[in-house]
From TrEMBL:
Gene3D superfamilies: Rhodopsin 7-helix transmembrane proteins
Main localization, broad class: membrane
Name of this protein: G-protein coupled receptors family 1 profile domain-containing protein
One Pfam family per UniProt: 7tm_1
InterPro entries on file: GPCR_Rhodpsn (IPR000276), GPCR_Rhodpsn_7TM (IPR017452), GPR_3/6/12_orphan (IPR000723)
Cellular component, GO, one term: plasma membrane
Length: 191
C-alpha cells in the first residue's frame, strides 16, 4: 500500500497500528521459538528427533515447509515491489527526462540479498524435511553453517553497494579514503 500511495500512506495507516503489527509478529516468533523449551521436544523419545534436536521430526518438517511457503510469498511480494518501483522510476524519468540508475541498483541489491538468503537457507530447509536423527551430524552442520552465515553475508553485500558504508570501511580499516572514491550526492534508492 505504501508503494501505491507513498505520499498519503502515513495518514492512512497510523504509526500505532504498525507498531502493534510488528509487536504481534515478534510475539508469535518468540512463542514459536520457545516451544521446544516448553516441552514440545523429542527428549523423551529419541526416535522422533529430527536433525535439529530437540525439535521433533514432524515439527521440523512443519517449520521447513512453512519456511518454504513464506519464502515463496516473500519472493512474490518483492517481485511486485520491484515492479512498482521500476514503474515509478520510469514515470519520474519521463517527467524529468533522465534515466534513473539508482533504482536498478536497488533492485540488483535486493536480488543479491534474496538470492543469498535462498542459497543459505533452502539447503537446510530441504535437509530438515528428508533427514532424520540417524543421519551423520556432519550433514546437519554442513547445512546449518551457511544458514547461520547469512546474517554475516548481508552486511557485506550492503557494504559493497553503499558508498557511505564503503567510505566508513575505508576510514576504519586504513584511515583514508581513496582518491577515486565517488562522493556523488546520494539518492533514496542507494542501498
Amino acid at each position: 500500500m505504501s508503494l501505491y500511495n507513498a505520499l498519503t500512506y502515513h495518514t492512512e495507516r497510523a504509526v500505532t497500528f504498525t507498531y502493534v503489527i510488528v509487536a504481534l509478529i515478534w510475539l508469535v516468533c518468540v512463542v514459536l521459538g520457545s516451544l521446544p523449551l516448553l516441552g514440545w521436544n523429542c527428549l523423551r523419545d529419541e526416535a522422533s528427533c529430527s536433525v535439529c534436536r530437540p525439535v521433533t521430526k514432524n515439527n521440523a518438517v512443519a517449520l521447513a515447509v512453512t519456511f518454504l511457503l513464506v519464502f515463496a510469498l516473500m519472493m512474490q511480494l518483492y517481485f511486485l515491489i520491484c515492479k512498482i518501483a521500476l514503474r515509478h522510476a520510469q514515470q519520474i524519468a519521463v517527467q524529468h527526462h533522465f534515466v534513473s540508475i539508482s533504482t536498478t541498483k536497488g533492485v540488483s541489491t535486493l536480488s543479491a540479498i534474496l538470492c543469498t538468503f535462498a542459497v543459505c537457507w533452502i539447503p537446510f530447509a530441504m535437509y530438515s524435511i528428508v533427514a532424520d536423527s540417524s543421519y551423520p551430524i556432519i550433514y546437519t552442520y554442513a547445512t546449518v553453517l551457511p544458514a547461520t552465515c547469512n546474517s554475516v553475508i548481508n552486511p557485506i553485500i550492503y557494504a559493497f553497494r553503499n558508498p557511505d558504508i564503503q567510505k566508513s570501511l575505508w576510514l576504519a580499516c586504513c584511515g583514508c579514503i581513496p582518491t577515486n572514491f565517488s562522493l556523488r550526492p546520494r539518492t533514496s534508492s542507494d542501498v
